[in-house]
Predict the structure.
Amino acid sequence: LMGGAATMAVVGDGISWKDGAQADIKNVSLTDDERQAVLGTLLGDSSIMYPHADSNHPRVCCNHGGPQRAWIEHKAAHLCRLGATVREAPSKGYGRESGKVTLSLSTSCLPCLSPVAALVKRDGVKRITREWLDAIGDTNPIYLDADAARAAGVGFYLGYAELTPEGQRFNTAV
C-alpha cells in the first residue's frame, strides 16, 4: 500500500481501514495504483455514485456475501487512503453460500473520484468503453472493443482476476 500499512479500526457500525500517513482525506489524489484498482473493480462488482442530490463528489461502493469477506477486506485495505469502510448486515441469504451476511464497502465522497465517474459513466449509466479499458494500465484485462460490440448489438462476457501479494486469488465477471 502506498504511504504505509493499512490499519483496521471499528468506526460506528463498520470497520474502517486507514493509512496513518494520510492527514487530509478530502485533498487526496489517486495514485496510479489506486486509480487502476478503482477502474478495475468498477468493471465488475462495484459502483461509483453520488449518494444524494446534494453530493458534490462520488464514492465507490460494492456489496458481497459472507464467503467473500477476504476479498472485500482486501479491497478496503487497498483503498484505505480513500476512507474505505466495510459494514456488515444480516442478509436474506440469497444462495447457499451467502453466509447470511451482506458486506458493504464504501469509500468517502472525494473530489479525486469525480474524473473516474466521468470516465466510466455515460448519461448516468456505467458503460465499458475503450477509453476506460485503456485507462486501467498494467492490470488491464483482456482487451475488448466494447464500443464496436455495442454498436453491433453484440454482447460479451468479461472476466477479471487479481492475485494479491499474499498469493490469494479473487475473480469477478461482467
In short: The chain has five helices and ten strands. The CA atoms of residues 141 and 160 lie 6 Å apart. Strands lie at 6-11, 14-19, 46-49, 59-65, 85-90, 101-106, 121-122, 125-126, 159-163, 169-173.
